[in-house]
Write a structure and sequence with these properties.
The protein is an all-alpha fold. Among the domains are: 47 residues; 36 residues, no CATH class. Helix content is 67%, strand content 0%.
């Protein structure tokens, strides 16, 4: 038996066209491959972006640490009364540099609708003056 293909057999094989069903299956297969490749590309892109975002965050933390530490030490050196004057308590000092601390403070400072109360310093004598 000869394993070689003759010219006539090659011409016969080349003239065969796949059926419509086979063409549709091939289109679906190629579309699935494209979708898989795009999903892998997005996942790699997101992973690399997240990695560099984390590196930038770490670098920013390291660069700003001396300044944040100096501010913390200055605030810690204040008396409780001086902290109250600027609207802080000693317990707030550990959270001063949290990202959501300022937002929480702003929401807490906003009065409820219809009950607007003026903001006064903690050591203000306004309450004493009104009581007298």
């Amino acid at each position: 038996m000869d394993a070689r293909i003759t010219k006539e057999e090659t011409a016969l094989l080349m003239s065969l066209t796949p059926s419509r069903h086979a063409q549709r299956v091939e289109e679906i297969r190629l579309a699935a491959i494209r979708a898989r490749d795009e999903a892998i590309g997005r996942a790699i892109r997101n992973a690399v972006t997240g990695f560099f975002r984390a590196l930038r965050s770490i670098a920013s933390f390291i660069i700003t640490y001396p300044q944040r530490r100096a501010v913390f030490e200055q605030l810690n050196a204040l008396s409780d009364r001086e902290l109250a004057d600027i609207g802080l308590t000693r317990g707030d000092l550990a959270r001063v540099f949290d990202a959501d601390f300022a937002k929480t403070r702003e929401l807490a400072a906003k009065p409820a609708t219809g009950t607007a109360m003026p903001m006064t310093a903690a050591n203000s004598n306004v309450a004493v003056a009104k009581a007298a």
